[in-house]
Amino acid sequence: MHRYFILILMILCLGCKNEITPSDLPLLNGYWNIEYITHKNETFYPKGAAKLLDFYESNEKNGVRKKVHPELGNKFLVTQDLNNFKITFKGKNCYLNFQTAWDQWQERIIKLNENKLILEHQEKRYHYQRFHSEHWFMKSSKRKFEPQSIGKV
């Protein structure tokens, strides 16, 4: 039993890749949904269905993050919430550096792959999963909607 534990631990350690490289950055582009947030050994889940997604678009040095709302027909309503960022590397760490007229902050990319993104900011870790519209609309079809009256054309 002890051998299996050590074997599993070795596989997990060897399979972990914590270093983000410039070649990983194209994976950031796209729509991301926050699954949960961790802070000081606590986990916080968003209440209800996700209403807004984070849309990232970047090149090697710069990018933008926008808040968007998914709609039927694979369309997105873009909010006025938009943050530009610069990408920097310090040692083995990759950072998104944001600056607005009111504030500036830095978010460290902990993990980035095809389906998972983890960002760290002020001792909080934001765990994202890549947004797939077919999954969201299947979940939202289970919600109850109020009927709306449609006028005659």
Describe the protein in words.
This protein is mainly β and 153 residues long. Helices cover 14% and strands 48% of the residues. It contains 2 helices and 9 strands; from the N terminus they run αβββββββββα. The protein has helices spanning 2-15, 133-140, and strands at 30-39, 42-44, 53-58, 62-71, 75-90, 93-99, 104-112, 116-121, 124-130. Strand 6 (93-99) and strand 7 form a beta hairpin. The longest helix has 14 residues, at 2-15. The radius of gyration is 19 Å and the shape is globular. The N and C termini lie far apart (72 Å).
N/C terminus separation:
72 Å
Low-confidence stretches: 9-15, 138-153
Provide a count of the helices: 2
Strand content: over 45%
Proportion of residues in helical segments: 10-25%
Largest sheet: 8 strands, antiparallel, barrel
Q: Tell me the series of helices and strands, N- to C-terminal.
A: HEEEEEEEEEH
Morphology call: globular
What is the average of the pLDDT values? 81
Total beta-strand segments: 9
Class of secondary structure makeup:
mainly beta
Whole-angstrom Rg: 19 Å
Strands of the largest sheet, in order across it?
1-3-4-5-6-7-8-9
